[in-house]
Amino acid sequence: MPKKKIVYFCKECGFESSKWMGQCPGCREWNTFVEEPAAASGTSAVQAAGAGAKNRPYVLGDIPAGEDERETSGLGELDRVLGGGIVPGSLVLVGGDPGIGKSTLLLQVCRNLSARQIPVLYISGEESLRQIRLRASRIGEFTDHLKLLCETDLSRIREVLLAEKPGVAVIDSIQTMYDEEIGSAPGSVSQVRESTNVLMQIAKGQGITVFIVGHVTKEGNVAGPRVLEHMVDTVLYFEGDRFVSYRILRAVKNRFGSTNEIGVFEMKSSGLEEVANPSEYMLDGKPTGTSGSVVSCAMEGTRPLLVEVQALVCRSNFGLPRRTAVGTDYNRVNLLMAVLEKKAGQHLSESDAYVNIAGGIRMNEPAIDLGIALAVVSSFSDFAIPDDVMVFGEIGLSGEIRSVSMASQRVAEAKKLGFKAVILPSVCRRNVGQTEGIRLLYVSWLREAIAVVKDLQ
């Protein structure tokens, strides 16, 4: 028996080497090489998957394209994240923590598409047909246009896809698929890379939209080589706290739309339900008349999202004050507290500070800087900011309140939810213009913003 050739792959970028190296020459990362058997030479599954496609050059103007080719998924939040709907022939990777709802989301999409008589093939390598049926019974009724297949052999899956030619196919999950021509175990770097390559050729050659479910590592990244994310058209991450009912769908890569949009869902017994107004959902349960709490506004793509910023400042029992940030950047909180100490006269050097974005959501936009600063001052001085006041603005190191984008949309969202006043940067005055039914308080400096808030008592 000839000895199998061993090669080494980088888990981050897919760089191939004949020997192990500590640092990858491709992505310059350390300790990312793993040992895998080399793939067999000859006619590959990728070539077989693309067989039948007419490979000839086209003039750019002769290629039909348009937004009307998108197919709605039946879930408005998912269509928003995808950029307006499902693009035929695209390859979409969906990642997320175990039990977060990836399979439930895709099964609901399959239900909506099959109801419109679009042929759908759901391929599962983790669950039996009976398990899928039990989960589907909670979601609703399905039509005969949805077909299920439990298979992990990639050659068999390729044959079924080419024979059935569905409009949409779901692979759950890519880590369970294997190719017999590759000697490594399912889920290895070689298997994941080659399986995705085969599915990509089928999607592009046959015009089949393929959704791939991917497991994530403890760092939150999709398991397998980083080249997996480069091969697909769209990468979606399904996020959420296990202890709250809402889920957030976020695009980190999208060749057909923006990567700034998010979709908000609520997990219920009947499946995932869209949250039409996430701002109202995030502010549900906000305490009234308490210090250290203020409502701020962040933008997620074109959608304004109102969140509650909480702060707790108390005297430190040790020589080194403690700083904790949940839901926002820890270093940004330290920077804002330094600005409050130096430019606003707030003596915080002997106090512990704890900052939290309520609801388990994570926000890193600079527009919530003013909300964090005012929440800290409110808790430190023990005064309550009125519940009908919303604030937003970026804070510079000199204590100035800087402009933020889409100020008019933020004000409109506050007005829609019944807020009576908004504290915002003075440089946004021209963009907002005249707005009736809500009081606009423009500030230029952090000291001025603190004084305005205290005058509202």
Short description:
The chain is an alpha/beta fold.
Features of this protein?
single chain; 457 residues; Rossmann fold; Ribosomal Protein S5, domain 2; 7-stranded mixed β-sheet; 13 helices; 21 strands
Structural notes for this entry:
The chain is of the alpha/beta class and 457 residues long. The chain folds into three domains: 1-38; 71-276, Rossmann fold; 281-455, Ribosomal Protein S5, domain 2 (2-Layer Sandwich), CATH 3.30.230.10. Helices cover 28% and strands 25% of the residues. It has 13 helices and 21 strands. It has helices spanning 45-49, 76-82, 102-115, 129-139, 154-164, 189-206, 227-231, 278-282, 330-343, 369-381, 407-416, 429-432, 446-455, and strands at 6-10, 16-17, 33-37, 91-96, 120-124, 146-150, 168-172, 209-214, 234-239, 246-254, 262-268, 271-274, 293-300, 303-315, 323-326, 351-357, 389-391, 394-395, 401-402, 421-425, 439-443. It has a nine-stranded mixed beta sheet, sandwiched between helices. It has a seven-stranded mixed beta sheet with strand order 15-16-14-13-17-20-21. Strands 2-1-3 form a three-stranded antiparallel beta sheet, with no helix packed on it. Helix 5 (154-164) packs parallel to helix 6 (189-206) and helix 9 crosses helix 10. The longest helix has 18 residues, at 189-206. The radius of gyration is 26 Å and the shape is globular.
